[in-house]
Amino acid sequence: AQLQDEEVGDGTTSVVIIAAELLRAANELIKQKIHPTTIINGYKLACKESVKFIQDNLSVPAADLGKNCLLNVAKTSMSSKIIGSDKDFFSNIIVQSCELIRFTNTRGEPKCPIKTINVLKAHGKSTRESMFIKGYALNCTVASQLMPKSIKNAKIACIDFSLQKAKMKLGVQVLVDDPEKLDAIRQRESDITKEKIQLILNSGANVILTTGGIDDMCLKYFVDAGAMAVRRCKKEDVKRISRATGATFVASLSNLEGEESFDAAFLGSAEEISQARICDDELIIIKGTKAKPAASIILRGANDIYVDEMDRSVHDSLCAVKRVIESKAVVPGGGCVEAALSIYLENFATSLGSREQLAIAEFAQAMLVIPKTLVVNAAKDSTELVAKLRAFHNASQTIEAKKGFKWIGLDLENGKCRDNKEAGVLEPAMSKIKSLKFATEAAITILRIDDMIKIYQPSKEDPNSYANAVREGRL
């Protein structure tokens, strides 16, 4: 499940269910005196055939399904999550943000870096008051109320050090014989930071984002220059902003000559930076970033736990949409792929004359665990609905005139079978293929284990426990 989450981002539950079912089937075969090596070879062959069958017969190019394809993928991913009841509202937000940040790389491949979408969580109000913002929303405020709240044509400096009065390092001693020189030392400490700030401002910067602190004395210089300074930003946020605006993330002002300098080339640019009150918090919103577009989603919910769960659901949907944009292929959902694979693998198993036949037949049977689980979760009759689904897919694979039945999946709201390609129940083809591969690999890895040796820790009994006291007659 962890691997599926890293590779695809969605379909984690399916992997675990399929892997568990494959192991259960393998256990039955081992009881019938079939060697694990035979089962492993059968599973590998079945997985390979399944992937080939999905790619050749069940995957549909996303371009053929038009604009609604991405919306339908987002809705399908969300339907099993906590925000399933508001899937129409959230799918629009997700597709908007993915469309905004997608780009084509030098090889002509579409890319959708969802890590550049900043998801902010704010508890309070209802889930439907979540919003999408064109630009990067930063969960910080300006360091001083005297600073401007909005700057057009912003030149942004992203720095990774504190702008505070310089202090002597620990262990450094200065021996002074003239008390008047103490003031000179203090003055120099102040001037060091002032010079740093002056270097940054002289380069043309009017917005300064720093991961460190800015003390009150240094704030005065920014206020006088009419610049906007934001302190204590998250390092991750500043790095993302520097990538989006084309700025350089500066960790130190020292150059190769050993002197301090700040080049104007280090600055990023954006059309506008403003501080706005969204929800109950003040946020800084960076609009019109020059290097790459940026998007932000602000999630609202009743409490922190609910908002965290919403964040996970939105992340899964973003990943599903990203995979469709990048791999350009979708498959119908609702148990359609698993039922088709089950029929295909059963027919494929009977065509084999080797001992792997049994393992492939069990693999085919294990595929049905997904439609069965879906039906049970919807409180319907799993035996009847899965049997109907299998009948449709058997007809699609054996009768040429009924080939269109291969898109038939489950409609769990009405408790019947329907064409899920038409209904818009779609999933990324990559998600299905990867979940099959990972589940098979997990099952095979466990099947390779011959013996398991457990060493139990000797239990440390408490001599004063109630059981011991009764046994020794102390009570």
List keywords for this structure.
single chain, 475 residues, alpha/beta, 7-stranded mixed sheet, 3-stranded antiparallel sheet, 47% helix, globular
Estimate the strand proportion: 15-25%
> Count the strands?
17
Structural class: alpha/beta
Q: Round the mean pLDDT to the nearest integer and report it.
A: 85
Global Rg? 31 Å
How many individual helices? 16
Low-confidence stretches: none
Description of the molecule:
With about 475 residues, the chain is α/β, with parallel strands linked by helices. The protein contains 16 helices and 17 strands. The chain has helices spanning about 1-5, 10-30, 35-60, 70-80, 85-100, 180-200, 215-225, 235-245, 305-325, 335-350, 355-365, 370-375, 380-400, 420-425, 430-445, 465-470, and strands at about 60, 105, 110, 115-125, 130-135, 135-140, 150-160, 205-210, 230, 250, 270-280, 280-290, 295-300, 330, 410, 415-420, 425-430. Strands 6, 7, 8, 9, 10, 11 and 12 form a seven-stranded mixed β-sheet that branches. A three-stranded antiparallel β-sheet has the order 1-14-17, sandwiched between helices. A hairpin with a 4-residue loop joins strand 15 and strand 16. Helix 2 runs parallel beside helix 15 (about 430-445) and helix 12 packs across helix 13 (about 380-400). The longest helix has 24 residues, at about 305-325. The two termini are about 50 Å apart. The model has no long low-confidence stretch (mean pLDDT about 85).
